[in-house]
Amino acid sequence: MGEIQIITANTAAALAAKLCRVQVVSAYPITPQTPVTEELAEMVESGALKAEYLTVESEHSALASVVAASQVGARVFTATSANGLLYMHEMLHWAAGSRAPIVMACVNRGVGAPWTILNDQQDTVSQRDTGWIQLYCRNSQEVLDSVIQAYRIAEQVQIPIMVCYDGFILSHTSTPVDVPSQEEVDRFLPPLEDRSGIDGQTAMNINPLILSDPRPNANGVVMPGYMEFRYRLQQDILGSLDTIKAADKEFLDIFGRNWDGSTWTYRMEDAEHAMVSMGSLASECTLAADSLREEGLKVGVVGVRVYRPFPASEIVESLSGMKTVTFFEKDVSYGYQGALAMDARAAMYDCSSRPAISSYVVGLGGRDVRPDQLAKATLECTKGATKFCWLDVRS
Amino acid sequence: MSDNLSPIRTISTPAEGEAGKTGDWRSQTPKIDHGKCSQKDSCLLCWLYCPDGVISSSFPLEIDLTYCKGCGVCAEECPRKAIEMVDDK
Amino acid sequence: MKRHQNYEIIWHGRGGQGAVTAAKVFTEAAYYAGFKGVSAKPTYFSERRGAPVSVHTRISLEPIRTFSNVLFPDIAVVLDENLLEMVNVTSNLKAGGLLVINSSKSAHDLHINGPFTIAVSNAYHCSETAGLIVEGNVLVSTSILGPLVAATNFVGIDNVRKAIQHKFRGKPLDRNLKALELAFENTEIVDLQMMSFIAQA
To answer: Which domains, from first to last, does chain C contain?
Structure first.
């Protein structure tokens, strides 16, 4: 049985890593992720967590270290935010390409310049094409549970996972969290099976240079070319949607709660208008939907929990037949639109009856977003005017 | 293109009062020993390093305590040890 | 204060004074009192000792779904009296709400008016008396909860004691409990709404 603790999402992430019995932790502190690294370092120091804590001089090195540790068979954890994540960019591609089942807590923060330490989701959304699975959490309980689920998923499909949660809004906010027992987590997450193929006796070259076309190696075995490796990554990340859903189902059996797989819905049963969002912003949307329903408008919410792989068919299924759909997101693909709206719009070309779609960029760099603002913006879009705009930009 | 560059580029100038009357954040106050620092041989490193721009560049040196946060950078940088940080009570 | 389904509280303090701890302890106490949804969100700008900080707290019978800033609090708690000059803590306070202040002055001498109740206690002095001093700093994080629970009925001092016992051990625990008791006992509560009603009559 779990125990309710009043903790922040950062503490929840650190506790989850500990409960998953991680063997190697390497992270470089950056606001608002810092408490995660501090708490894990304390656990290692006190002996509460039997792991190696590698102190490094940068985020690039932090991820390089855990990629290396992962490739020789260790269960690894790291965490970062914003510019730290961007500094990892090269190693993000490397981690996914080398199929290292790393779990990383990404504490969402706006990206400089100008400097901000406050929340938006530009940092992780701009890393969507690196081959990582991305989960977005709506509250601290989901952060703790998603880290535990992430190890199970990552180790099954051999693809690294970012568990993303909003900086300060969740990372520093104390709320009640059900912290499961070690026994429960052990039942859900078996010890990591060493798939490295490294025995310590034979010399091995990990991630050697691969040519464009398949070719026989020194032993005469035909090795795939670069494209074949990358094609497998694409096939496996697409296929991981089923693994994610299955892990969430099994989680329910052991812990008595789950997080609806890849997308979740709120009051969508009879909805005519939908709001779509990710992370804690989607939770704010549920209050906006409540208030619009009080005014007689049939509004529901679709929350995107898994952004990569993109749950296109679930989104199409949820949004088909809506009169209007309004996206809210804390990121923008500069020169076009919000990334979530772009991806979903492309998927919805297949909708049998296409809704009128609007999208808003909100809450960049810590700008407060309230449910009443979201309700007002949605109300405008339900009147049929499709638009793309930014909410609450002040003159 | 905006006709005014300043809201596009992110520039800030060190100046007193960017975060309000920051003098009341202080737990230590810098005290200048004017005997150790005079116009004749002053380096003005304190003025240069002060992150809040609250030290005068004229003599005798003055510190605007309405805005000085008491960070102690001036005392740390002064090569003549003419500035001492004194606890507020 | 009348008992509600939801409470929104803003805490005003200075970095290092204990506003974040105070809010965390109180939300935990509220959880013990049966409120399933509680949240304490610190707002950070300049993370430095002495800089003004605020914490936004929600207490609800239902789980919390919004993490946005509290705009119109039911309760405002001021840990540092001289913040009253810098931050307009009463401007958005709900009518019928509560203002809790750590001050050596009496409610009358603070010259605050408005349609709310004011609870004053010299939390600084109580913490000092209880020996709640860390690295020369007097911490008012638990003593400020004295006037707060004295003027409200939805959490209760026993639940605050329980939350303090969960957070502290040994001598710090004794000091925190003593600071809480002292501030609780030495709280002055004035219903300004009632006062202005009497004055008008």
So the answer is: 6-200 (3.40.920.10)
Q: To the nearest whole angstrom, how far is the Cα of B55 from the nearest Cα of chain C?
A: 20
Which tokens belong to A100?
């290292």
In 3D space, the residue among A180, A179, A198 whose CA is nearest the CA of residue A188 turns out to be A180
Give the burial class of A79: count Cβ atoms within 10 A of its Cβ; 0-12 exposed, 13-18 middle, 19 or more buried.
Answer: buried
Query: Residue A141's domain is classified under what CATH number?
Result: 3.40.50.970
Please count the structural domains in chain B: 1
Look up the domain containing B39 and give its range: 22-87
Checking if the pLDDT of C171 tops 70, the result is yes
* Structural domain that includes position A362: 263-390
Q: What is the CATH number of the domain that holds B36?
A: 3.30.70
Task: Check A166 against C44: CB less than 8 A apart.
Answer: no
Does the CB of B19 have a partner CB in chain C at under 8 Å?
Answer: yes
- C51 and C15 Cβ atoms separated by less than 8 Å: yes
B37 lies in some domain: yes
Contacting partners of chain A (3+ CB pairs under 8 A): C
Among the partner residues C24, C28, C66, nearest to A287 by beta-carbon distance: C66
Nearest to C28 among A6, A172, A371 (CB): A6
> Would the CB atoms of C48 and B26 count as touching at under 8 Å?
no
Is this complex scored with an ipTM above 0.85?
A: yes
User: Does B4 have pLDDT greater than 60?
Assistant: no
Q: Which residues on A lie below 8 Å from C40 (Cβ)?
A: 173-174
Domain limit, last residue, from A143, A162, A188 = A188
In a domain, B8, yes or no: no
Any C CB within 8 A of B29 CB: no
Query: Which tens digits make up the pLDDT trace of C125-165?
Result: 999 999 999 888 899 999 999 999 999 999 999 999 999 99
DSSP for B19-86 reads TB-GGGG-SEEEEE-TTT--GGG---HHHHH-TT--B-SSSS--B-TTT-----HHHHH-TT--EEEE
pLDDT tens readout for residues A173-190: 999 999 999 999 999 999
CATH of the domain at A308: 3.40.50.920
Nearest-Cα residue of chain C relative to residue B87: C136
Selecting from C28, C31, C67 the residue whose C-beta is nearest the C-beta of A173 gives C67
pLDDT for A56 beyond 70 = yes
Domain membership of residue A63 (yes or no) is: yes
Query: CB distance B24–C46 less than 8 Å?
Result: no
